[in-house]
């Protein structure tokens, strides 16, 4: 009798310490929605990290690119998805933090469950390789002196728009012609096709074109110099008090089980401390930057506060 009781107690104790996978999650592939075209920093980081998580989860992360509406189409799909842990959004603050302020979107970043920040990307101010501009100051002075002449390509009401607004605020007002283009790839194509004169993009997306000479970098828009381009000064170093750090972040639909989120968060943490993941990201000019859900929430709130300030100043609040 005593032996039987001990076996029951041992079985109960073991049940409390078995891996979370025993609960059955994940039992199938997890869809990772990247709301931008393939080839941008969001897409690159999602694919690299997802690939390096295949030994950490029993099921793969499968990237789906759902572009459109300045990133809102993909975000909407995740917002409407079943909160079962099998659909997540790979996003950065400039989209979900901005959407509820400047569009009629019925959701914001606070309507999702934070999972993790995974990587940080540099933001580059770029022009065509044959542009007359050699510095950020030259470009901004020319744009200020010639309202409507120079063409700045961006995604209206998305991060590239608000990066522009932040720069414009810092230099006393810029009035270029806006050329709409969604995602890093879209803006790069616009410059290469001579349809625009200047833009900001994720540095990881533009490196091949800088190396070929087709495009030129004037400044980094990050808070500090990039380890991948240490000779390129930041905007702040050029006297422009504006900066933006791409925080590649993962969200789940509201109501996703906390147990599922914890499993994903832990897997991201492990992947981002793995030297092979770190090296793979660095090869693509991306910085491993793990933050847990609480830290992620605080960083996103700070970004949202900045965007709200810029939206109010520019009459963009809907």
Structural notes for this entry:
This protein has 2 domains: 29-120 and 245-313, Bordetella uptake gene, domain 1 (D-Maltodextrin-Binding Protein, domain 2), CATH 3.40.190.150; 123-238, Periplasmic binding protein-like II (D-Maltodextrin-Binding Protein, domain 2), CATH 3.40.190. 41% of the residues lie in helices and 20% in strands. Helix 7 (159-171) links the parallel strand 6 and strand 7. The chain has helices spanning 2-17, 41-51, 72-80, 93-96, 99-102, 136-145, 159-171, 183-192, 203-212, 258-271, 275-283, 293-313, and strands spanning 30-34, 61-65, 87-91, 112-121, 123-128, 151-154, 177-180, 199-202, 215-220, 246-253, 286-291. The N and C termini lie far apart (71 Å). By secondary structure, the chain is an alpha/beta fold. A 6-stranded mixed beta sheet has the order 2-1-3-10-4-11, sandwiched between helices. It has a 3-stranded antiparallel beta sheet with strand order 8-5-9. Keywords: Signal. It holds the Pfam family TctC. Residues 1-22 form the signal peptide.
Topology:
Blueprint: H1 2-17, E1 30-34, H2 41-51, E2 61-65, H3 72-80, E3 87-91, H4 93-96, H5 99-102, E4 112-121, E5 123-128, H6 136-145, E6 151-154, H7 159-171, E7 177-180, H8 183-192, E8 199-202, H9 203-212, E9 215-220, E10 246-253, H10 258-271, H11 275-283, E11 286-291, H12 293-313
Parallel strand pairs: 1-2, 1-3, 6-7
Antiparallel strand pairs: 3-10, 4-10, 4-11, 5-8, 5-9
InterPro entries: BUG, Bug_dom1
Signal peptide: 1-22
Pfam families: TctC
């Amino acid at each position: 009798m005593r032996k039987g009781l001990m076996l029951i107690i041992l079985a109960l104790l073991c049940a409390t310490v078995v891996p979370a996978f025993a609960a059955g999650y994940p039992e199938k592939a997890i869809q990772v929605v990247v709301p931008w075209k393939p080839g941008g920093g969001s897409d690159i980081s999602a694919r690299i990290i997802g690939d390096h998580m295949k030994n950490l989860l029993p099921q793969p992360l499968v990237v789906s690119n759902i572009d459109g509406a300045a990133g809102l189409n993909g975000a909407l799909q995740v917002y409407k998805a079943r909160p079962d842990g099998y659909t997540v959004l790979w996003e950065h603050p400039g989209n979900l933090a901005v959407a509820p302020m400047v569009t009629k979107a019925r959701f914001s970043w606070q309507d999702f469950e934070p999972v993790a920040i995974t990587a940080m990307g540099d933001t580059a101010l770029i022009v065509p390789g044959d542009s007359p501009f050699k510095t950020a100051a030259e470009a901004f002075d020319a744009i200020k002196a010639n309202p409507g002449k120079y063409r700045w390509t961006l995604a209206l009401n998305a991060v590239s728009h608000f990066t522009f607004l932040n720069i414009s605020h810092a230099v006393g007002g810029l009035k270029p012609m806006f050329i709409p283009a969604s995602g890093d790839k879209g803006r790069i194509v616009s410059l290469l096709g001579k349809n625009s004169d200047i833009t900001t993009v994720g540095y990881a997306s533009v490196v091949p074109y800088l190396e070929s000479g087709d495009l030129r970098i004037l400044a980094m828009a990050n808070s500090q110099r990039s380890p991948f381009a240490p000779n390129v000064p930041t905007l702040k170093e050029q006297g422009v008090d504006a900066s933006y750090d791409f925080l590649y972040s993962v969200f789940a639909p509201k109501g996703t089980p906390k147990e599922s989120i914890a499993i994903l968060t832990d897997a991201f943490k492990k992947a981002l401390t793995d030297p092979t993941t770190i090296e793979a990201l660095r090869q693509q000019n991306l910085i491993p930057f793990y933050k847990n859900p609480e830290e992620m929430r605080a960083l996103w709130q700070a970004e949202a506060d900045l965007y709200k300030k810029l939206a109010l100043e520019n009459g963009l609040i809907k």
